[in-house]
Design goal:
eight-stranded mixed beta sheet; seven-stranded antiparallel beta sheet; globular; 12 helices; 22 strands
Length: about 475
């Protein structure tokens, strides 16, 4: 050892480990009008993280035709709820989900001709007049208007006569109806790349963010899609968990919905069932789209901690309806019938249109609070995800008493802070000898036992009112 004369210093690891929390991040699968994407290569089966509406439109385009389901979600999430961020995944492939439109006459006025259609693929457009065939960027330019329609603009340097009143146009256009449940479910393509719901496992490696909920508005009303979606969210990267927001087909009366959910196995504790659709003006939304906004706004108001139920919080809606436009106006007793069968609905009773329901899809078949209540289930997932993120750094470290104490001390401190803020009623962690036999410790396996109680939502509040004759004496008071 070298000779020393003076003062020296050294460091040891902090005994308390700060927690790394997981944010509320929706991951949404659907179809987008990628013919309007500003990217050189439109995103197909590629997760894209968007913090603003402008970023989402730049990547995916936007259309008022909500057969493009990601356009519906973008409108709801960014415009109505002002929420952020979101991961969007478009599964519509312009190379295969398209159809051809044969020659048709398009009126031209003042050098402009507008194709009154959505999803037109620029590169497929052919413009002619009688025997003359015109060239793009030489005779005309192509640009989309604010409604997503393609506008043909006559160029003065070209050969289209200035007095032209009509053009003959043919083109290919996106066909969102060609996207099937199998495209949402996805798999591994011929080149070994994941598609559809298989991409859930790419979210954390790509963005270092844990999915907080996953949905596929409209598509999740298909039982096969819902089954795969619900299974995927309960085991993300082998480490994380979140909840699936699934739509019940809005083509039946509310009294038929519980039987449908039971018959089609919409009964997972990791599932929030949504019925019917919502309306706002002339727009119609899947309830799952707006519920995601409600949940994210509610979480944000509580420090990102999902301990509060989305129930009794406002939708951005002026009505509820079935697919065919039939109005659905439920009273509290009718809405409670749905809630009692694990279905979240919309109620217009006091304070406007609100999300109504606290129960996961598992209820009433499962009554364990951790699986039956939406906020309790979400808290259990959030706590587990946070533990994984925070204590991953201890993996492969030597199993010592100091390590065990560091984990238990920091976890207990975190639990105390959650309790102090009212996010849990109480919590603690213990390292129990009974759960850590010597053979496991020798094999590098250690187990910590976390006890925690998130608060249940006040689903029923009762007041007892009694006539008290003793107050009659007040009639004779001086």
């Amino acid at each position: 050892m070298a000779y020393k004369h003076g003062i020296s210093t050294s460091e040891i690891p902090t005994s308390i480990t700060p927690s790394v929390t997981s944010a509320t991040l929706p991951v949404v699968f659907g179809t987008a009008p990628v013919n309007m994407s500003k990217r050189a290569k439109p995103p197909v089966n590629e997760p894209v993280l968007c913090y603003t509406y402008a970023e989402a439109v730049e990547a995916f385009g936007y259309s008022e035709d909500w057969s493009f389901t990601l356009s519906e979600f973008m409108n709801s999430y960014f415009a109505l709820f002002g929420a952020s961020p979101v991961v969007l995944v478009n599964v519509l492939d312009p190379a295969k989900h398209k159809k051809s439109v044969p020659d048709q006459a398009v009126p031209m006025s003042d050098g402009l001709a507008t194709i009154k259609d959505q999803g037109v693929l620029k590169g497929s457009v052919k413009v002619k007049k009688d025997s003359a065939t015109y060239e793009v960027d030489k005779d005309y330019a192509l640009n989309f208007n604010g409604s997503g329609e393609l506008v043909i603009q006559r160029l003065s340097k070209g050969t289209i006569p200035a007095d032209t009143k009509e053009l003959t146009v043919s083109y290919d256009k996106l066909d969102p109806a060609a996207v099937k449940p199998t495209d949402i479910i996805g798999g591994i393509d011929s080149e070994g790349r994941p598609t559809g719901l298989e991409l859930i496992n790419q979210i954390f490696p790509r963005f270092r963010m844990v999915p907080g909920m996953v949905l596929a508005p409209g598509f999740s009303s298909d039982p096969t899609v819902a089954a795969v979606l619900t299974a995927k969210v309960r085991n993300i990267n082998g480490s994380f968990k979140c909840m699936a927001l699934t739509d019940i087909p809005a083509n039946m009366q509310y009294t038929d919905v519980p039987k449908w959910t039971a018959d089609h196995n919409y009964t997972s504790p990791g599932q929030i069932n949504c019925y019917p659709k919502l309306t706002l003006g002339d727009k119609k939304y899947h309830l799952s789209s707006q519920l995601a906004g409600v949940m994210c706004v509610t979480d944000a108001a509580n420090g990102g901690v999902p301990y509060m139920s989305p129930s009794n919080h406002n939708f951005q809606a002026d009505g509820a309806a079935l697919n065919d436009g039939t109005e659905v106006l439920l009273g509290p007793d009718q809405a409670s019938f749905l809630n009692g069968n694990g279905i979240v609905t919309a109620l217009n009773f006091i304070g406007g249109w609100k999300a109504w329901g606290n129960r996961t899809g598992a209820y009433p078949g499962v009554t364990d609070p951790k699986d039956a209540f939406i906020p309790v289930r979400r808290m259990m997932d959030w706590i587990q995800n946070t533990v994984v993120l925070t204590y991953w750094q201890y993996l492969d470290a030597p199993v010592t008493k100091r390590m065990v104490q560091a984990i238990t001390d920091s976890l207990n401190l975190w639990m105390n802070s959650l309790q102090a803020q009212g996010y849990i009623l109480g919590g603690r962690v213990e390292f129990l000898e009974s759960e850590n036999p010597k053979v496991n410790l020798m094999d590098g396996k250690i187990k910590f036992h976390i006890y925690v109680t998130p608060p249940s939502p006040a689903e029923e509040i009762s007041f007892v009112v009694e006539y008290d004759a003793n107050y009659l004496s007040s009639l004779f008071a001086a």
